[in-house]
Amino acid sequence: MNRIKQKLQEDKKILSIYFSAGYPNLNDTVQIIQDLEKSDVDLIEIGLPFSDPLADGPTIQASSTAALKNGMNTALLFEQLEDIRKTVSIPLILMGYFNPVLQYGVEEFCAKCEEIGIDGIILPDLPLDVYQEEYEAIFKKHGLINVFLITPQTSDERIKAIDSASDGFIYMVSSASTTGAKQGFGNEQSDYFERIAHMNLNNPQIVGFGISNADTFEQATQKAKGAIIGSAFIKHLTENGVDGIGDFVKQIR
Questions:
Q1: 56 flagged as catalytic
Q2: β-strands 43-47, 149-150: how paired?
Q3: Which member of 28, 56, 119, 167 is catalytic?
Q4: What pTM value is reported for the model?
């Protein structure tokens, strides 16, 4: 069974951490992954740095830009992760934009993910219909879960279509904005969380955007299976490097 599916079956709230590969230093990627697993994180989203990250807020944009300047690219990331399954058993997801995947070659990209032991991919700018028509068979051939995003503005009809096409979890964007840490969620987000919970979807939801501490993690996971922390963790890396990752995670739960 895919590692993501196994993890989702556990009776616990899922904590997923996102970071940009190649940041803060080019060769930090593997150590960050290893330290996150030792800190009992449940999922890791490894960001593929891209020059035009439309959905990302200033913190993630800055880390992505720095990673590119450090020399990070798709081929190098695959090289860094070549032996990752010798030391890490946690589910790993690559998150980025479709352009680098297309440049690498979709079939080649998915085959390399399978070879390394990547479990899923998140590509926010790959439309559902395009994925289903052109790429779904390739993803499934290589055992990869494709994770789709929904927002408060996504219609019930489209959410149901995404649920039908999903085979892992749904990435539930907390608000129609770019990524970034927030102090808490307002009534609009609470209503949205409630609305999705009442839809009784087949796939569990993991909330992203705006999760930064124990309070926002708790709020986000009252109705959802888990939550994703990105900007707050990258801020920690900016200020501390790869030191104190365990301390950061302990502050969340």
A1: yes
A2: unpaired
A3: 56
A4: 0.94
